[in-house]
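ok so for the tutorial part 2 we go from a plain amino acid sequence to predicted structure tokens. step 1 is just haveing the sequence, like this:
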Amino acid sequence: MNTTHISGLLRVVAAASVSALLLAGCSSAGEAKGSAPSASATIEVTAAPTATAESDAAEHPSRIVAVTSETADMALLLAGPEAMAAVAVGSQSTEQGMVPDLANQVAETLPHGITPDAEQILSYNPDLVVATIRHGSEQSTADQVASAGVKMVEFPSSSFNSPEAYADALRQMGELTGYPAKAENYATDLLDAIQEIDAQKKGNSPRVMALLFRGGNVMAFSGDNMVPVLAARAGAVDAAADAGITATGPIDAELLVRANPDIIFLEGLREGDKAQFDELLSSPAVAEVPAVANGNVHLLPTTEASSLAGINLPVGYQKIMDIING
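step 2 — the prediction. this is what the tokens look like for a chain of 326 residues:
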């Protein structure tokens, strides 16, 4: 298998010996399964993979476990539900998943949370495990899976913070699943659509801030997340950075006033999610913030503009571009 990776940030961990438990049930009817890796390795590579015809692919894993929604969506898009042993439960949601119709054809799911259960993952007898690594607990689980002799591939969260990074991740998933040409087609179509929207930029430069709601708190995205990245691409100024926000975290009225955005984007799963931000945005303390005073506050669906949007990113980017263009 070609483990070449564009960004050099993704780590491919392969092990020489696979226990009898993990070998059991690792193939299914109608699917070709590649041989087990021949040597233990932790590989960081920098050259771009070469797309080949699907018939030339060395391996089509048939029992893929995708621990996170981002990785599950990519694997489903390329390999189909028949190749999946289990997917992140969020991928089955129409409010979170990129391809929920495909995800709902997979019987087994992994729950939400930042501490995946290595024992549960291994119980599916996977021949490939893919995950997004954001927290130490996720890294610990990935290490346990790899040490059990299973091919474990970790995508950094930065793989889902820009259209180009996502396209690279999609190409890598194509290499892993044995569908590089299919992945290249999706990646090329995505970037072509994004570049068409780029051409619509009028030169406006409003101050923009993006907010999310997690764990009962309103939080501000730092500039390296998908919505701020798309807004900056459309010409906006990152108000969060100007206010000294360098990492995604809680925001209060004082910090919002300091940021003083002209436009506020809200990450939401559904239309009613806008109410989660009411306490902050209806506070008298922020009444004179331009975005609030002028009603320039916009909910963006997670499935269109977020790390989960994937090939749907042009839909969200078009909305962002239209709002910034005025």
